[in-house]
Write a structure and sequence with these properties.
Elements lengths: L1 E3 L2 H11 L7 E3 L5 H14 L7 E3 L13 H24 L1
Parallel strand pairs: 1-2, 1-3
């Protein structure tokens, strides 16, 4: 399973890893709570056979440390929260 927020890097990873086995890729905006919950439910019901996860979730925000805002911080924390719960669901369903 490959999880990413944009199609470019995610599709490249899917193409490369697809050479060695079956790969499912999902484009999900995990920074939005409802999108994350919907995706977690989908994993739980449709993909209980997942054997691995490639985390392609990233937030690229080229600013100096001093220029980051509270909103930028929240974005980073939402990504950490998402990968935590995705991993947890995968462990439970496997």
């Amino acid at each position: 399973m490959i999880l990413g927020g944009t199609s470019g890097i995610m599709n490249a990873a899917q193409n490369e890893l697809g050479l060695i086995g079956l790969i499912k890729a999902f484009q999900v905006d995990v920074s939005k709570a409802q999108s994350l919950v919907t995706f977690l439910d989908r994993i739980d019901f449709e993909h209980s056979d997942v054997e691995g996860l490639v985390n392609a979730i990233v937030s690229f925000n080229p600013k100096t440390f001093i220029d980051h805002t509270a909103n930028d911080y929240e974005t980073y924390m939402s990504l950490n929260l998402a990968i935590f719960f995705v991993t947890r669901v995968l462990l439970v369903t496997s």
